[in-house]
Amino acid sequence: APVRLGDVATTGANIIATADSIRQMLPQLTESLPKSVKVTVLSDRTTNIRASVRDTQFELMLAIALVVMIIYLFLRNIPATIIPGVAVPLSLIGTFAVMVFLDFSINNLTLMALTIATGFVVDDAIVVIENISRYIEKGEKPLAAALKGAGEIGFTIISLTFSLIAVLIPLLFMGDIVGRLFREFAVTLAVAILISAVVSLTLTPMMCARMLSQQSLRKQNRFSRACERMFDRVIASYGRGLAKVLNHPWLTLSVAFATRGLH
């Protein structure tokens, strides 16, 4: 008669690791049984979990690649693109180290948190690079520009970091199953944001002082000039739109309140 056995993972156990351990034990179990007994795996629910984790890993890598591409499109400078290109993976690697320390597993929620954190991580780096580049273009030496530029917006980066982390605090105190599910998500995202702030205020200014110069920032190719002309048109259009809004405040407020009323 067929006998069906199922495994139940304990709370906090890694389902994929548990399934792998069981599969490794199957040959030993088969040898200890009579030859007339056959052992087969009827179902493995980790198949869908593995596929989901692979998809999320791909989305994370794709997000990092797209972020680097967009950075180059707007900064139009290879050294300035390399800096956040290093800061983003380094912040995520630091987050993985904290996850190991906290005994967090790599699952859909933690990978989703890292994917979302990619946007926050690159924001800090871009703001610092832009401010330092502004002083270098004015004629400051790279080291002086890095110290001055990072010092000016250091408090802004810190305040933004803790504001974002404060938004995640309610998730830490949610009860029941939902709280247990989103606790790792909230902690992972908060750690990534915090490490990003540290990297943007330490490593990013140092790399700017070493890699940026007036010559590198002023050097432009045909692609850079085309992008600059496009951005100039966008900025000019925005300026005209902003002027119309500021010249008609009551109309702007009326449209805003009417839009709010529709929702």
TrEMBL record:
Its annotated compartments are: Cell inner membrane
> Which branch of life, at top level?
Bacteria
What InterPro entries is this protein classified in?
Answer: Acrflvin-R
Lipid bilayer topology = Multi-pass membrane protein
Looking at the UniProt entry, the stretches that span the membrane are 58-75, 82-102, 108-129, 150-173, 185-209
Chief localization class? membrane
Is Aminoacyl-tRNA synthetase given among the entry's keywords? no
- Molecular function terms from GO: xenobiotic transmembrane transporter activity
Write down any Gene Ontology CC term.
Answer: plasma membrane
Q: What is this protein called?
A: Multidrug transporter MdtC
Its ancestry begins with: Bacteria, Pseudomonadati, Pseudomonadota, Gammaproteobacteria, Enterobacterales
